[in-house]
Amino acid sequence: EPLIPPAVGGLLSIPPAKAAKEYVQFDEGRLFLITAQPVSDKLEKTAVRRLRALVKETQVIVPGVNVGITGKSVLELDEMQQSRKDTTKAALISLLLVVLIFIFGYQETGRPVKATLCLLISLGYTMGFTTLVVGHLNILTIAFVPMLIGLAIDFGVHLITRYEEELGYGNPRKLSLRNALTLTGAGIFTGCFTTAGAFISMGITEFKGIQEMGIITGGGMILSLIPMMTMLPAMLLKGKHPPQNLAIEEVKDDKRARLESFWLARPKAVIGLALGLSIAAASQIPKVYFDYNLLNLQSHGLESVNYEHKLIHSGEKSILFGAVIANSLKEARAIETQLGQLTSVASVDSVASYVTSSDQKKLALIESIRSTTDSIQLPAPNEEFLDIGTFHQSLTFLASYAKLAIQSIESNGRGQSFSPELNSLLQAIQQLQKEIQTMEGTFVQARLTQFQRGLFDELKGMVGSIANQNTRAPIQVSELPDILKNRFIGADGRFLVQVYPKSNVWERAHQKVFLKDLRTLDPEDVNTPVITGTPVQLYEYTELLKLSYQEAAVYALTCIIVMVWIHFRSLSAVLLTMLPVFMGTFWLLGLIGSLGIPFNPANIMTLPLVIGIGVTNGIHILNRYHEDAHPSIFAKSTGKAVMVSALTTIAGFGSLMLAQHQGIASLGHLMSIGVTTCMLAGLGVLPCLLKVMKPGL
């Protein structure tokens, strides 16, 4: 059956299903798909930009036409561009919020501004480190700047807070700074290395994107210590200072200290409440699930995302295909036959579809079609512009003939099957005549002339292709046009079999079924067909990413426990330090379970990060308890420092919630919740436990 372009088929009243066999159709012929392949991977961005330029040109030439581009390359490019915009905005917002929180918490601008300057220098160090070690950013690592802003400022918060406390005791500046560096500095170093350890633990996973995330952010945390512990102390000795002997009195009269004394007077009640919340959280944890669908991470409203959804919901098959690599044409034909019978497969395409077998019936049919087309003599195309008057007259005659034919059918009752098509033709002619009358003459003439030339070119090419068919022997692979050979035959001579699934393989359940069916091909010999393609890659990518972050969480926990033990040299101190982390993580899981917030490939990094960030609260609180042997932390500077540092961390991650990219936004949501729950567990529950247990650290 010859391939007939839609334009020709419409003129010949051929049903759309047959008229557009060479076009990929969706939504009953209302949506057509054109596939384009860049010359090389390096030119993907250039190809996408050129396609977008062509779409704009088409929309000018054909006003009102609904044209757009989508596909894996387009989605990835749009995702990266949107992520870059989101993280740039988040970095500016987080920096502003961090400065405001710092200034509000300390009721001055001098020292917060000095700490912020050191923060900016540390970001510069990290960017240089990233350029030197990794050399690029990916969809995961692009968010490191707002993260570091919220995390690295904590070093300055703790140092400045303790420095102010020492000044309040009446100590001179240098002695106050020395005490702050020796007493609180140890906790700052340990807290830095535990958080950096959580990031660096990602670097020993198998997923390259996660490795780069761990290296960049973990290295950035350590580099941030340099200006915070060298430049900031030097800057603190310069400039104005608040009156001495006032800072400690302000701490004692702090409302937070009075509130802390309320729950420290009832430690068992607070511990009981925390246990009750943990039990409630435990009942919600089974509701936590993982959303594997990468399309759900994309920004709402992007053209490429909208068109991808349109194709998913309007097609009988997916536009994503599995790829099976066959070693021979015979194997490709066998694979095509076998996979075509599977319930999860909509269609299979390979070079075997275009190479005829030795079936004599098919060859005879091709010869019959070729003989018929031999008698077709197409006139030479008229290079002059089409005459509008003659064309309008031809339309009038054609409409009259259509009316006569309809009347004849209605009167004698014969040929009823042609009646709908004739009525459709008549309506189309009348509509075309109305449209022509409303348009400018030269525009109509140019468009119709262009259509006429294109129509005859397509007809000439189709008839010529049929006439040149060799029916004496089956078509060989070498006789195929280059466009097919480049598509289906690799440089090593192996053959590609494209397998299109029926269902939406962005969804995990459909991926599993489709992949299971594809893997029924696997023989036990060494010539196992290679099975790959976007659906397979989506499945393996998300599975590896999830497992890598789970492994990173285990590595981070192990690393942190070792470092905390080295710091305190006490098992009880390790358990007490980790308590806010375990309890805060437990509450986090319970909250997202009850709220229906899923983990996804973007926010699953919350697991190792919450562990690394949350443990710093316990380290600073236990450090102060070891120093004073008293559970109250808001009566000293430690409580204020822990709260302000937690709020700045929440600001850093919380700024990501404003992102259009749904994956980045969800990371901001989960990290903000996780840091908050760990802060509440550290400031509320841990001091009460210290009062009840009175451990000797």
Explain briefly what this protein structure is.
With 697 residues, the chain is mostly helical.
Verbal overview:
The protein has 697 residues and is mainly alpha-helical. Among the domains are: 23-69, no CATH class; 75-296 and 539-693, Multidrug efflux transporter AcrB transmembrane fold. Helices cover 67% and strands 4% of the residues. The protein contains 24 helices and six strands. It has a four-stranded antiparallel sheet with strand order 4-5-3-6. Strands 1-2 form a two-stranded antiparallel ribbon. A hairpin with a 4-residue loop joins strand 1 (24-26) and strand 2. Helix 7 packs antiparallel against helix 20 and helix 20 runs parallel beside helix 22. The longest helix has 35 residues, at 72-106.
* Helix/strand structural class: mainly alpha
CATH topology of the domain at 75-296 and 539-693: Multidrug efflux transporter AcrB transmembrane fold
Which CATH class of the domain at 75-296 and 539-693 is shown? Mainly Alpha
Which runs of at least 5 residues are low in confidence (pLDDT < 50)?
Answer: 1-22, 245-252
**Globular, elongated, flat, extended or rod-shaped: what is the shape?**
elongated
Strand count: 6
CATH architectural grouping of the domain at 75-296 and 539-693: Up-down Bundle
CATH superfamily of the domain at 75-296 and 539-693, called what? Multidrug efflux transporter AcrB transmembrane domain
Question: What is the spatial order of strands in the main beta sheet?
Answer: 4-5-3-6
Q: Give the number of helices.
A: 24
Strand content: under 5%
Order of helices and strands: HHEEHHHHHHHHHHEHEHHHHHEHEHHHHH
Average pLDDT rating: 84
Main sheet makeup:
4 strands, antiparallel
What distance lies between the first and last C-alpha atoms, to the nearest angstrom? 87 Å
**Percent of residues in helices:** 55-70%
- How big is the Rg? 35 Å
